TrEMBL record:
Phylogenetic placement of the source organism: Eukaryota, Metazoa, Porifera, Demospongiae, Heteroscleromorpha
Residues annotated as domain Gamma-glutamylcyclotransferase AIG2-like: 32-114
Coiled-coil region: none
Active-site residues annotated for this sequence: E71
Pfam assignment, any one: GGACT
Entries under PANTHER family matching the protein: GAMMA-GLUTAMYLAMINECYCLOTRANSFERASE, TROPONIN C-AKIN-1 PROTEIN
Family: Belongs to the gamma-glutamylcyclotransferase family.
MF terms (GO), sorted A to Z: gamma-glutamylaminecyclotransferase activity
The protein, known as: Gamma-glutamylcyclotransferase family protein
GO cellular component, one term: cytosol
Top-level taxonomic group: Eukaryota
């Protein structure tokens, strides 16, 4: 997202999704030590709510196409609309927004979900330090 040749991307603010969703850490297929977070599309009714935190970006159509390719949308991940609440102070580039604003956004949900994925521990934030190499 930092390569300007891919298009425009600007950080709006930190935020959290309005609806709870599970995020799990899974091994990356074909990599001996690779792990990545996977946002699952439904919160099981028998699990405690899991609030997902992250960052909200504004992107142009060129960057969106690059992200879709990176996420192999709609095969491995599917980009779907949802809402988030801004938890940080938005950049001055977005004067109509304030901390606490609810905004429409799109996120990439894992699209190859198996029942056993819902048995993995849920996380709210992901940092590469969260998984051991």
């Amino acid at each position: 997202m930092t390569n300007k040749d891919n298009g425009y991307a600007a950080l709006i603010s930190e935020g959290r999704l309005v609806r709870p969703y599970p995020v799990v850490i899974m091994a990356v297929e074909g990599k001996k030590y690779g792990y990545s977070p996977r946002l699952l599309p439904e919160m099981p009714p028998d699990k405690p709510e899991n609030i997902v935190n992250g960052e909200l970006y504004e992107v142009d159509s060129n960057m969106l196409a690059v992200l879709d390719e990176l996420e192999t949308h709609p095969i491995r991940y599917k980009r779907l609309p949802t809402q988030c609440i801004l938890t940080g102070t938005p950049s001055d580039k977005f004067p109509g927004l304030a901390k606490g604003s609810t905004v429409d956004c799109e996120v990439y949900f894992y699209n190859q979900v198996k029942p056993e994925h819902y048995l993995l521990p849920f996380i709210s934030n992901f940092k590469s330090a969260d998984v051991a190499d």
